[in-house]
Amino acid sequence: MTTIAAPKPAFRVIYDPAASTASVAAVSKFASPYQTPPKRRIDAQDLGDKAKLARILVEMSQDIGDTSQNATNNPFVSSVLIQGVPMTSGVPICINHSLGRPYIGWMCVRAVGAAWSGYEPVSPTVPQNAQLQLVPGSTGTFSFVVF
């Protein structure tokens, strides 16, 4: 089993010496190249004023906190990729997901030998904080993301 790493936001300060300004950009390495990251213009003279500098630092801190909160609330951040699970049609199978908590959901992300079909029993007989129980409707090898 392989754990998918969480995306970590990167922050950069861009200084323009010609204009004596700096901008702060929060950039996710998974963001679309077509999206413009949010930027805040900071004049060099603002850096000399302690009150303005304190306000800028508080706003930056809040922006970082908001970005981190959004990332940690995403259920896919702590998802697990389980690859190459051989299954036989109609034979129930239990998959250890190692999340350490009950799973929220799952999806088949790869099917080899047959298209995925199957279901999760209404009343699984295994602890959901450790395992995912499935009843496949097709025979093949499948990969799942459990989140």
Oligomer: single chain
Average pLDDT confidence is 75
Strand order of the largest sheet: 1-5-10-7
Which term fits the overall shape?
Answer: elongated
Q: Which class of secondary structure composition applies to the elements?
A: alpha+beta
Query: Biggest sheet, in brief?
Result: 4 strands, antiparallel
Q: How many distinct domains?
A: 2
How many helical stretches?
Answer: 1
- Measured between the Cα atoms of the first and last residue, the distance is 13 Å
Helix content: 10-25%
Query: How many whole angstroms does the radius of gyration measure?
Result: 23 Å
Report the β-strand fraction as a percent range: 35-45%
Low-confidence stretches: 1-12, 26-37
- What is the element string, with H for helices and E for strands? EEEEHEEEEEE
**Number of E-type strands:** 10
Structure at a glance:
The chain has 147 residues and is α+β, with helices and mostly antiparallel strands. The chain has one helix at 50-72; strands at 2-3, 9-16, 21-28, 39-43, 80-87, 93-96, 106-112, 118-119, 131-136, 140-146. The chain has one helix and ten strands; from the N terminus they run E-E-E-E-H-E-E-E-E-E-E.
Key terms for this structure?
alpha+beta, four-stranded antiparallel sheet, single chain, 16% helix, 10 strands, 2 domains
Q: What features would you describe in this structure?
A:
- The chain is α+β, with helices and mostly antiparallel strands.
- The protein has 2 domains: 7-75, no CATH class; 79-146, no CATH class.
- Helices cover 16% and strands 39% of the residues.
- The protein is built from 1 helix and 10 strands; from the N terminus they run ββββαββββββ.
- The protein has one helix at 50-72, and strands at residues 2-3, 9-16, 21-28, 39-43, 80-87, 93-96, 106-112, 118-119, 131-136, 140-146.
- The strands form 3 sheets. It has a 4-stranded antiparallel β-sheet, with no helix packed on it. A 3-stranded antiparallel β-sheet has the order 2-3-4, with helices on one face. A 3-stranded antiparallel β-sheet has the order 6-9-8, with no helix packed on it.
- Strand 2 and strand 3 (21-28) form a beta hairpin.
- The longest helix has 23 residues, at 50-72.
- It is elongated, with a radius of gyration of 23 Å.
- Mean pLDDT is 75; it is low at 1-12 and 26-37.
